[in-house]
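Incident log, structure service

09:12 report received: a user says their structure output differs between two submissions of the same chain.
09:20 pulled the input from the user's history:
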Amino acid sequence: MSAVLAPTVQTAGLVIEFSGVGQTFTSSDGRPVVAPQDVNLGLRRHEFVSGVGPSGCGKSTLLRLVGGLLAPTSGTVSIFGMPVTEPRDEIGFAFQKPTLLPWLDVLDNVTFPMRHKYGRVDARDTARASDLLAVTGLTDFARKRPAELSGGMQQRVAIARALLHDPDILLMDEPFSALDALARDEMSFELVRIWSERPKTVVFVTHSIQEALLLSDRIVVMSARPGRVAEIIDVPLPRPRNLATLSDPVFTHLANEIRVKVFSRQPV
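09:34 re-ran on a clean worker, output below:
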């Protein structure tokens, strides 16, 4: 019911390409820590790809490399065929925490990146932010402060902010990890809807196999540190995905299959 592909790269038409990518950090005792290592992977336009694997295998590091927040120790990360050397405008980033400014209301939090970068927010920015709040179901909360919102609503604000400059690529680092199970499901469905309405190339890191299956076209299974691409699994579930998807026998089969693969990659 799933297709397991060799972790190789076909470069034609790729938006993001990892070629022999490795990252070495230095621990507090001076020892080198490698995560990830020798990653070869390509993402196509408007593809939704999730990364799962043991903690510390380098999933979040790969996002930071794509975002230009780190330079790889070895190999190359490319976007549209050009090596990534710094943060780029075509990338939006949603982190584990929404990191909203508590003294600003929702609308001003969404437009803050424009004010920070250009020193001003024009009418087009405000109109686009209002449109995104409508997409994320937050129009009635535009003038509320973050403290007046639930955790899930705050994450919606963070997603709207990441989409404000209409990036080609959206990087998401466990954005729903702090939410309870019901809120996570709600936000997953919300993200499916937003992505279907405004397609992006999405790289999504999660520890939730259910979340990865509900959202993704492909799932990248990482090995334990030093973190290599162990397997790439196609998700053949039809779109649009909804509550019925969770009870699909293919969903259940894939969830069990991926769970076995992830746990088999854990260190003993």
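09:41 both user submissions now match this output. Likely a transient worker issue. Closing.
09:42 reviewer note: The first helix runs from residue 59 to 66. The helical segments are 59-66, 106-118, 123-135, 151-163, 181-197, 209-215, 249-264.
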